[in-house]
Design a protein that fits this description.
By secondary structure, the protein is mainly beta. It contains 2 helices and 18 strands. It has one domain: Porin, CATH 2.40.160. The two termini are about 30 Å apart. Keywords: Signal.
């Protein structure tokens, strides 16, 4: 898995958006401000009054609302409705800011400040603006030198269902490689690649959806001992299949 194909690298360069502060790292599958994508994740820029959290925490913004100024996910979560699957939802509608917020589905990794989910402008199946994202605090500054770790993960794709895809992520810190899988109602995804501690993404490789559609998988570890993981699987122009995922070490 040490060499990615040219096609995978092309997908990575065309779909990945990355930002980091001292403790928060974020990514999304489509670029903010391009082709109607109005969502942006990164470190929190505004935390005052009714907006909880702190500057620098994992945050999210929308272009129609104060030009994408990011508020914390902690504050954003308080404005959403948690469904029976533990997914926070905001329907595509006009908000108090007189702007169409688009549709959000997102969740949190256990009690960690790590969030993942997706957004689309309309919430209608086939929406080309569909964007998967994650944003987490306390990215792992160093990774284990050896051993195998299994993570229990979940995925979000609002067009697969209002629930979560389920799966596992396996990190082999001996060989510096990973594998993983996610299963949903209509999406079944496998992933594999390399663990690259010093790179922008701490793991980076390939993905396959429904046994035939080639894509890209990438993400980061969080916590002092790589306790949590979060990432994205993206599929080039087939944005409808992009999935954000996250999870913790299996017990």
């Amino acid at each position: 898995m040490k060499n990615l194909s040219l096609a995978v690298l092309t997908i990575a360069l065309s779909t990945s958006v990355f930002s980091a502060s001292a403790t928060t790292i974020s990514a999304q599958s489509q670029k903010y401000g391009v082709d109607g994508v109005e969502v942006i994740v990164g470190d929190t820029q505004y935390a005052s009054g009714s907006h909880a959290g702190a500057i620098g925490d994992p945050g999210i913004g929308l272009q129609p609302i104060f030009f994408g100024t990011r508020i914390s996910f902690a504050s954003f979560k308080a404005r959403a409705t948690e469904n029976e699957h533990g997914v926070y939802e905001l329907a595509a509608s006009t908000s108090a800011h007189s702007a169409n917020t688009g549709k959000f589905n997102f969740t949190q990794v256990a009690n960690a400040e790590v969030y993942f989910g997706d957004w689309s402008k309309t919430g209608i199946d086939g929406d080309a603006t569909h964007t998967a994202f994650y944003s987490g605090k306390d990215v792992s500054e160093s990774l284990p030198n050896s051993g195998q770790v299994e993570y229990t993960i979940a995925g979000i794709n609002q067009f697969d269902s209002s629930g979560k895809l389920s799966g596992t992520f396996n990190a082999d810190f001996d060989t510096k490689e990973y594998t993983g899988s996610l299963s949903g109602h209509e999406l079944n995804i496998t992933m594999s690649g390399d663990i690259l501690e010093q790179e922008q993404y701490q793991f980076n490789g390939t993905a396959i959806a429904n046994e035939s559609i080639e894509g890209h998988s990438y993400g980061n570890f969080f916590g002092a001992d790589a306790t949590e993981v979060a990432g994205i699987v993206s599929f080039g122009s087939e944005h409808i299949k992009d999935v954000a995922f996250g999870g913790s070490k299996a017990q």
